[in-house]
Structure formats: C-alpha cells, structure tokens
Automatic annotation (TrEMBL):
Belongs to the cyclin family. Cyclin U/P subfamily. SUPFAM superfamilies: Cyclin-like. InterPro entries: Cyclin-like_sf (IPR036915), Cyclin_P/U (IPR012389), Cyclin_PHO80-like (IPR013922). The keyword RNA-binding does not apply. This is Cyclin. GO terms for biological process: cell division. Pfam families: Cyclin (PF08613). GO terms for molecular function: protein kinase binding. Keywords: Cell cycle, Cell division, Cyclin. Signal peptide: none annotated. It comes from Canna indica.
Amino acid sequence: MAALVEDLNAVPGVVSVLSTIFERLAERNDAAVERHAHDLAPRHRASAFHGLTKPSISVRSYLERIFRYAHCSPSCFVVAYIYLDRFVRRHPAVSLDSLNVHRFLITGVLTAVKFLDDIYYNNAYFAKVGGISLMEMNYLEIDFLFGLGFELNVTPVTFGYYCSILQREMYLESSPDPSLSRLQCCLTSTDEESSSCQQKQLAV
C-alpha cells in the first residue's frame, strides 16, 4: 500500500491509477454501446446509476474531487475498487460507461468509507461532493448494497491482492516500453476472489 501513497498532501497514486483504469474502461464500453446501438436490452442493475448525459467532469477530476473533499483514507479507494469488481461480477449484464461510472464511483467510495473509516461525512455531504441530490445518493447506496448482496467484508489477503494489482498497473503505466504502457488489469482468481477477464468486468 505504501507505494500507492506518495505524499499525504498530494493525490495518492491509487487515485491516479484508478482514474486511468475507469477512464479506459468507460471509453471501451462506450465504443461497445455505439457498435450495438440497436440492442435495446435492459441495463439491469446499472439502471439506477444510468445518467441521461455524460458528466462534464472527467473521471480523473471526479475521483480527485472525492479525495480532496471526502477526506477519506486512500485505503477506501482500494476497497471501493473491490466492491465495484464484486458488483460487476455479480451482474454480468452491467457495463460501466460514461453515463454511469461517476455514480458508481461516488457510491463505491461512500460504501467503502462507512465500512473502513471510523470517522466520515454523512450522505448529504457525499451527495454534494458527487454533484447529486441526497435522495439520489441514498437510493444509489441502497441499490449498491443489494447489488453486492451486502458482501462488504474485505480480508487482509484480498486487500493485499488488489493493492498488488494496482501497483502493477502503476508500474506498467510508467514503463518506457510502449508495448507495456497500457493497463493490463485482468483480475485473476484467488482463494477468496474469483473473476475472469471479460469486457464488462473491471478488466482493462
């Protein structure tokens, strides 16, 4: 985890690498939606998170805003990543794209903060940080919890595993070798977390 946090006053590395992961994931799924625009299949669990227009704020700026104003520990972003991966694995029809990724992120971090941190801001504050109403924040939180099946516990082994994934992505992103300088985040199975590298999962 130390490698993911360079300076308490700076944006942690975990926020930067997650920004890149989710930006590329959203872009890829946006392209997939455009290629299959005629497909009117329901959005299933993503429907509550689906927006009508793409937010003007980028994923990177949004995550940095959450970090600066929510004052949560960097570990919360790792746990939020775990929760989002669990959510998508439980609902294969869900696709994180530009119309829903921001809502998924603010809800994932809110859920992680409540699970991990001893002191945190309430839903009304997180709603302001996320640029949504309190009613919507409450609704998204409930939908997210049910979507996870209330599977919120994260063991040290699982946490360490996801940290190692993010550390690897940081290394690949900073690699001078062009063939390596792209995210290879494909979550492989472990004793506690099993996920495959599929387009609609958190695999980039």
